[in-house]
Amino acid sequence: MKKNNCVNCATCGFAELCSAFLFEYLDPLFIRDLETKKKIPRGGYLYRVGDKVDALYALRRGIAKVYDSRGQLMGVVLPGQVMGVEELHTGVCRQDIQAATDVEVCMLRSQHFYQMSQLMPGFTDYILRVLSRSARNKQEFISVLTKSDTLQKVQYFLQLLSDTYKEYGFEYRIIELPLSKKELAELLGISISTLSRTLESLSAKGIVVMPNKKEITILDPTTQ
After folding, report:
1. In the chain, what are the domain boundaries?
2. How crowded is residue 24: how many other Cβ atoms within 10 Å of its Cβ?
3. CA 103 to CA 78: how far, in whole Å?
4. In angstroms, what CA-CA distances link 210 with 122, 131, 174, 194, 213?
5. How far apart are CA 172 and CA 124, in angstroms?
6. What is the CATH architecture assignment of 15-134?
7. CA dihedral (191, 197, 199, 202) positive or negative
8. Which of 154, 147, 169 is nearest to 200 (CA)?
9. Cα 161 from Cα 143, distance rounded (Å)
10. Which of 21, 120, 132, 167 has its CA 20 to 30 A from that of 210?
11. What is the pLDDT of residues 108-157, one digit of tens each?
């Protein structure tokens, strides 16, 4: 397993689409609407509340953070995951997506989705799977936030990170935290002191080991 840095095309959220219409069929309409390896520096924005959104974005490299219109941290995007799904029906962004590190994204503009669905066999099915995968990721994260027990909430979140890294082909036993402790506490709706105590408790139970502030080793692969 490689470090949690840059996703392979074979495991990216756009994998099926690119495999079929970029690498196999070399479809000119798909190629025209696809932009790869677009760079955004740390602190920059992929898009902001009120911006027009006319594309799906697959995070290729780095970490992005999601904020609501009030500046509340709402989530984190990992390499391979797709952004912009919720905004397709309105065309206007309701969230700020900020680069937590230097990032690269691949963009697939939506202006020709209908034409491609008519001309390219399987295109609609591929898009539906992209949307379904994104919806599943969101639902799994929501299920973490609804846990009333703090220890379970933190443990489930760490397990979800591990599972996500594994799904996209990264090292998943020794994981890099994508957020600072302050940001992680904000995201989970708990205080920093509560988060620290909970991590200490998980360590004492032999579930995790924290060799430093940014890495966690998952010792117990199952969520209890």
Report:
1. 15-134, 147-218
2. 9
3. 10
4. 45, 35, 9, 16, 7
5. 32
6. Sandwich (2.60)
7. negative
8. 154
9. 13
10. 167
11. 999 999 999 998 989 999 999 999 999 999 999 999 999 999 999 999 99
